[in-house]
Fold each of these.
Amino acid sequence: MTRLALVTGAARGIGRAIAERLAADGMSVVAADRDLPATGDGLTPLALDVTDRAAVGAALAGIGRPVDVLVNNAGVYSDRPFMDLTEADFEAMLSVNLLGVFIVSQEVLRTMPDGGRIVTVASRAYLGARNMGHYGASKAAVVALTRTMAIEFASRDIAVNAIAPGLVDTPILDGLSAERRADLARLQPTGRLGRPQDIAAAAAYLAAPDTGFVTGQVMIVDGGKSLGGVWM
């Protein structure tokens, strides 16, 4: 039977690229997002709020079969100096970036077959980043949650790993000038910004059925930026 993948936050950017890559690799893909994703070859769109457990449970029941591969990509982003952050900033960030991953993973794991795969999209910001106290903290928590799931479900051959992207050319960067984008590209050892397809390739590897011996890991995909230099 064709493997079934659920990708959250799949309307655009990294999530869309991951959904398209998994479909190209032969999976049936449910592309979920609060903003209903467009259809495509091998993609079934699903409107979903990952923070609503009842909605997640209903959506999974509606799919009609267990999910073999889950990619937790849904997330929100903002940047703000540490001393300007509020409790509301943290709550909004954690609600989607952490609680959403917890809810969807828990609901999917209730029926996921042995040998399943879970990929969470964290961020290189989990290592620490200027003006990203709330965002980095949420992604660091995602990494910890990923490793916990890897430990608890290893006996079922369910591999759980995280991807930590660096700076990727997504709609988040649309407001930057060409000069600023060029400056950011020069900070990368590879000399360019990441593309959504770079992250999709990593997700496809971790989602493959023959990579089960890789679990509890964080794959940093940042063009070598973590080798050194100043983060933004």
Note: DSSP finds six helices and seven strands in the chain.
Amino acid sequence: MDRATAILMVGLPGAGKTTRARHLEEHLGALRLTPDEWMIPLFGQSQPEGRRDVLEGRLLWTALRAAERGLNVVVDFGLWSRDERTALRWLFSAVGADCRIEYLPLDHDTQWERIQQRFAHTPEQTFTISAEELLDWRARFQEPTTEELEGAPPPAAPQPHANWSAWAAARWPSLPDIYGCPAD
């Protein structure tokens, strides 16, 4: 069986992650998992309190199972924190899959214009974002490091977590902590 590849889509809203993820889905015959496409149909709103993390955990569990069985996956979450990306790189390695980051940077003005256009044309597929929220999100976003983009081995998980599987299970409550050490 061929090794699967997991592609982690990284960037802020409006960066073009989902457009790129759809292209990768078609080009690679991959399973694409985009939480924004699930939130409104399941919960009737795009940001119901506490439910996004639960949904993302189940989608990640599905992605890991698919990758373990040799299917390429595209994880279209945004993944703003370095720890989220590190945990997923570690987890995909643990199930025997390759993993790479697709980072789509963009400047503030372009981002704001795209967000406004998206809401104007497809309001049923998105949610409102204020200018203040956008600035706050940009401040919280951690750009991928050169090491991440080049696929350097992940560092050890932060304490008190035994490994990145335990960290991920705490971050995404519906993702089980069942993954051992990454495969070589």
Note: The radius of gyration is 16 Å.
Amino acid sequence: MASLNFKHLRYFWMVAKAGSIARASERLHLTPQSISGQLREFEEALGVQLLRRAGRGLELTEAGQRILGYAEQIFSLGEEMLAVLRDATQAQSITFRVGIADSVPKMVAYRLVEPSLGLDEPVKLICREGSLTNLLGELAVHRLDMVIADRPIPENLHVRAYTHFLGASGVSILGARRLVEKSSPSFPQGLDGASFLMPGAEVALHARLLRWFEAERLQPHIVGEFDDSALMLAFGQAGAGFFAAPTAIERQLVRQHDLVVVGRIESVRDQIYAITNERKLSHPLVAAICRFAQHDIFGVATAAAPRKVRKPHHQDNSNH
């Protein structure tokens, strides 16, 4: 078959939906004989039988069921396109697709992305959450405009992308009010032997906290490790143990989740990065988020140069 005849496909789609040629002919305002002839031509062109008699009606063959699935998608998209075109006065929104690594605190992600909804042009925000490796795969095929992560692009990944440093924050140690009330008031000594919730081993903050515990000669009781920061927060709010969170969002966490700050660690830094397909940030929303992060959230005057990873163990340290 040289090309697909969409008129024939539509007739088949209508017959399959109506359940009979007679009912389809009424909806299409055509004679049953005309539709039958068109369906025969369609089947001959495809080289398969699509419909067969079943009592007084028709039923789909296996091939017909497969073709119907494609027809549903094609005509559904067509109707969606026509609906948009019919409303010529409808404001055209910008679709902004952001990937957020599991390890990034959700409050940080919200504070980074939320300003994009306040721009003059309407924005349709699509957020995807998952592992950094999976999100970078989505970025590589342009299904995402940006990935927010707690680390640069891993050097062992074959991803052509740029890492933009957004900023860093010290970390605060927090706990549920009832946990704090029954624990030692001293910091950091009070953490020795205390129940503690750790970020997962794949989270960048994990190794930094372990080094700090070792330097302070502390041995907290690690009751759990969490790749997902939101799940760790839920356990922390329930009093399962103390946990670390960026000081930049300390105030919101205390206010919204009735937590208590037991201490702050400036020497342990929680870092946030934007990863994009472009060295210079031409996408207006990505550029706006980076500026907001550097000046309003983290207070960084200038961002570090982006790094492009072409292949393992090779980095491009060019400036913006």
Note: Confidence is low (pLDDT under 50) at residues 300-320.
Amino acid sequence: MGRTPLDAPERLREVFAAVLDVLAEVGYARFNMDLVAGRARASKASLYQRWPSKARLITDALRANLPQSPQPDEGAFAEDVRQIIRAWREPPFDTAGIFLGLLEGSRQDADLASLREEHVDRAYTEHLRVAVERAKARGELPESLDADVLITALISTFVLRSEEPGVVEGIVDGLLRPLLGAFRTK
């Protein structure tokens, strides 16, 4: 009896879970097809046949596990951010390890940096960018606010504290709401 082909959805999920686990555990520099093949019970040759580089394999694994959620419109920036960040918590992976591996790899591998920017970064920033623009239109945020800096701060805080209980509430209620109050008092 043969193995299920890598094209089968359940096999792809197994391979991609192995990819993300390995990336989180060893980082990009030590990530290799042998580690993934062993963890996913697949041959290294079959992995290389489908993914010619580790950058492409990692990017496909990330794309398959991006948070899927509609654009929230709760009428308040803090509540939109709460919904967005809650969606990020859904994948059962080591978020900090994965993102640190991506950052490390992006410094070493231009292909990974390009693929990450094109396929992963946009997925995490798109909903926040819309929420920031709505908040500016409602007067919750000043027009002069640099959306990229705020988005980077929110994502970075989430990544670095993603394993902590109550991280979503800490970011929204402990960081964002006080900042929004400071904007209003000026």
Note: The first helix runs from residue 9 to 30.
